[in-house]
Amino acid sequence: xxxxxxxxxxxxxxxxxxxxxxxxxxxxxxxxxxxxxxxxxxxxxxxxxxxxxxxxxxxxxxxxxxxxxxxxxxxxxxxxxxxxxxxxxxxxxxxxxxxxxxxxxxxxxxxxxxxxxxxxxxxxxxxxxxxxxxxxxxxxxxxxxxxxxxxxxxxxxxxxxxxxxxxxxxxxxxxxxxxxxxxxxxxxxxxxxxxxxxxxxxxxxxxxxxxxxxxxxxxxxxxxxxxxxxxxxxxxxxxxxxxxxxxxxxxxxxxxxxxxxx
Length: 262
Known about the structure:
By secondary structure, the chain is mainly α. Helices cover 77% and strands 3% of the residues.
């Protein structure tokens, strides 16, 4: 517990100032987190990041995360490049004499989409405004905290025992309730671009999405027989273990912003 607490404090001491500052530091942070997360996912399949398939996947990740306004890669060329990368991965199945299989190639591309889209929306949401990203972060954290507390106090009915034995239906509902309270308090201090009813609906959607994202990563780890995605954060596992909920929440948060901010 002591190690977990110290790690959390140190991580927040680095993470929050960068998020608050915004701009290029957030973009760099998003890329670094995404690269580590991709490495963790590929390791589950025993594909090394510094192998040929790993480096090809890394290139695809950078293309997916390339922000249009930075002009690193023109958006018109992103899809053709990704198609070429997919063909190269498929060609590698022949060159490797099927040691690297079709399933491996598909896994690499889906891993890139899974990680890349989530972390791309990390800095896209921050670009819309600090309070929007803080809102998403608070929804996820309050959902996790509420689910844990309600699950420990009242949890009797398992939510999805085949995937995550410790999660309960009571915890699931408690997470939504906790996030709702936090959203209401947050809206009292920051002007959100929707009315009260829509704010509650969006909060419920994000809370459910966050818990689903957590279950998706649990299913991934259970499939490959690993406890944590990595060991980078002592007491907390890997980067993917800490950001699995955000990968589902932030794209939805961005869609919410695009629909209502304009």
